[in-house]
Amino acid sequence: MGVNYFETILLSIGLAMDASAVSAVNGFTEPKMKLWKILFMAFLYGAFQGFMPMIGYAAGSLVVNLFSNIIPYVALILLTYLGGKMIYDGIKGEDEENEEISNGVTIKTLLLQAVATSIDALSVGLLFSENTVLEASVQSDIIAIITFIISVGSYFVGKYFGTFLNDKAQIFGGVILILIGLKIFYDYLKNIVFN
What we know:
Elements: H1 5-29, H2 35-68, H3 71-91, H4 94-103, H5 107-118, H6 133-165, H7 169-194
Helix pairs in contact: 1-2, 1-5, 1-6, 1-7, 2-5, 2-6, 3-5, 3-7
């Protein structure tokens, strides 16, 4: 079949949107994030986003279809947990909030975000089923690279807008994470109803 690079790039941009939104949240939650951490965050998001389709490709339709019904629930639970924690931290008091922001986004949080925003990409591996392993790997690499680039850019966009939010950044960020989780879940329910 071969790799259709144009379609793969469009697919990659679509898949990167959840990671992009979460990167922006991190930008206004931790505007003074070190460069190594920004790159590590984007690397995690890209790696998970690129790796999930390969798992789907290797597992085949039976396994992916089995898990596809629980993926939206996992994403919703993880993102609601992370968003709820951010909202709680944002409203529990100015002094505590400033201390929380100075501590920044933890590596554990970045990992949970990476899983939550990429888990729905498992089913994308089924799109690669007619390709060779090498072709599927190339497509997954493109997904990872584009997610990385978009995540870095989105962090700086979030950082810029975060200056206007000031002490409300964590609350706003938490609401956005919950909305992303609800969007993933809504898309899942919409597919059930209309398919």
